[in-house]
Design brief:
Radius of gyration: 26 Å
Structural class: alpha/beta
CATH superfamily of the largest domain: Beta Polymerase, domain 2
Oligomer: single chain
């Protein structure tokens, strides 16, 4: 494998994420002290934009900054002092690349020649000759033209507000046309996963949006022009799609960094996210045995490692049905009127399931109270629940348990199980949410937002007040939604059966 190709496709970056609430930056020491200690860049908090500079050179800059006491930060980090860009970069393109409407307070946009001179003279030189001026009216214009994008995570705000849905997604939701994904789009998903596990959130987000746009398109893509016409698909992404169409392969996959399989191996441990996987990799761990014998694990990660293979093995829906039945029988032993529904991929009719989500409620709106702890105790006494990941996670009036179960009998695997108890007035919205798919849910929330409404796992609200950036500042009025069909009706949509939501 060509190491230059790996470096170009999947650069490694050494970044230090600083605490925004940390104390003020230290003063630059005298020159002789700086040279003796090697910390003469201690007051520098920099972000290097690799576009134009080149990945390899940008990485060298970052290593030199850290070596001499400086810090590498994301561009949006409070306290960042300098954002370093290529010599030919203008302020408009820089802000577009950074996905920022304006620079953080106190940050300077400087040309890379400034950093080169600093390293050459071993001191922080004046930025006057290297600073890129940003006119105020330009900043205001960008505030209107550029969407404020967020790093890829849950793609939603804490109150369920959706931020990353394209017009193609909404068109597919409204039309009800089944998605027709590009044959071979799993190759794009491999790249998206590779960027994600390496912490390259923006590239991962770009691929994720492109994949969703393809899945939402009303017909199979057959040409470059057709791919490029889809909202969310840019020129370079369209070229990759055509490459897959013509050759059945994507050359970029040949240059995936050797770290990616290891990072994916680690991030598949329940409770270990991308950052933890990267930390373990940088500590020199390369196998699950390394993690088992050398890493410091949380209790959840230890459980995830113990049942690693079981959790990755998808269960047949018949097994998911047995798990649902076990929970239902235990719950109805306390109250026969309790409703128990398995959601997720099981309810969407999939042949296999990664885990099981069981939703519990009672039509009288009262009898669900107090059942949560008693049900868990009963399932533990049966030996059905073997490990607790999160014993109680409260969300308003909803209570959620995340754990591990095992059906009786030889050769049975340990399975992930979530049990959610909700009041009946929230049952329809919770049922919709926990049924999924995640992309279908995002599209539903985005549609609600276009109608001045807000949809979450708790309620559908109308007359919601939002600020100029679209963030919710007033909760609005909760609409009665006795059934899922009422949610669809109030959003102006025909009802979609669970099997129609698997996109």
């Amino acid at each position: 494998m060509d190491p230059r190709g790996i470096l170009k496709a999947f650069p490694k970056r050494k970044k230090i994420h600083t605490n925004p609430s940390s104390k003020a930056l230290t003063k630059i020491p005298k020159r002789e002290d700086r040279e003796e200690t090697g910390e003469w860049l201690s007051s520098l908090r920099a972000h290097v934009v690799p576009t134009g500079i080149g990945r390899a050179r940008a990485e060298l800059f970052e290593n030199q900054i850290v070596q001499h006491g400086g810090q590498i930060c994301p561009a949006q980090t409070p306290g960042v002092t300098h954002i370093v860009v290529d010599e030919g970069m203008d302020w408009e393109r820089a802000l577009r690349l950074l996905r920022l409407p304006q620079l953080p307070s106190g940050a300077q946009l400087v040309k890379s020649a400034w950093l080169s001179l600093c390293l050459q003279e071993r001191r922080l030189v004046d930025t006057a000759a290297f600073s890129i001026f940003i006119p105020k009216r330009g900043i205001n214009l960008l505030c209107l033209l550029l969407p404020v994008l967020k790093p890829i995570s849950d793609d939603e705000t804490s109150d369920g507000e959706e931020t990353q849905v394209s017009s193609a997604d909404l068109e597919a939701l409204i039309s009800g046309r089944y998605p027709t994904p590009l044959e071979g789009d799993e190759k794009l998903e491999v790249l998206a996963k590779a960027y994600s596990v390496q912490g390259d959130k923006w590239r991962a987000l770009g691929y994720a949006k492109a994949i969703n746009a393809l899945k939402s398109f009303h017909k199979p893509v057959t040409s470059y022009q057709e791919a490029f016409s889809i909202p969310g698909i840019g020129k370079r992404m369209a070229e990759k799609i055509v490459e897959i169409l013509e050759s059945g392969h994507l050359r970029k996959l040949d240059h995936i960094s050797e770290s990616v399989p290891v990072l994916e191996l680690f991030s598949n441990i329940w409770g270990a996210g991308t950052k933890t996987a990267q930390m373990w990799y940088h500590q020199g761990f390369r196998s699950l045995e390394d993690i088992r014998t050398q890493a410091s694990l949380t209790s959840q990660q230890a459980i995830g490692l113990k049942h690693y293979d079981d959790f990755l093995d998808r269960m047949p829906r018949e097994e998911a049905s047995e798990i649902e039945q076990t929970v239902r029988e235990a719950a109805q032993a306390f109250n026969s009127g309790l409703l128990c529904v398995a959601c997720g991929s099981y309810r969407r009719g999939k042949a296999t399931c990664g885990d099981v989500d069981v939703l519990l409620t009672h039509p009288d709106g009262r009898s669900h109270r107090g059942i949560f702890s008693r049900l868990l105790d009963s399932l533990r006494q049966q030996g059905f629940l073997t490990d607790d990941l999160v014993s109680q996670e409260e969300n308003g009036q909803q209570q959620k348990y995340l754990g591990v179960c095992q059906l009786p009998g030889p050769g049975r695997r340990h399975r992930r199980l979530d049990i959610i108890v909700v009041p009946y007035c929230e049952f329809a919205c919770a049922l919709l949410y926990f049924t999924g798919s995640a992309h279908f849910n995002r599209s539903m929330r985005a549609l609600a937002k276009t109608k001045g409404m807000s949809l979450s796992e708790r309620a559908l609200s109308t007359a919601v007040v939002r600020d100029t950036q679209g963030l919710k500042v007033g909760p609005g009025r909760v609409l009665p939604t006795p059934t899922e069909k009422d949610v669809f009706r109030l959003l102006g949509l025909p009802y979609r059966e669970p099997a129609e939501r698997d996109w």
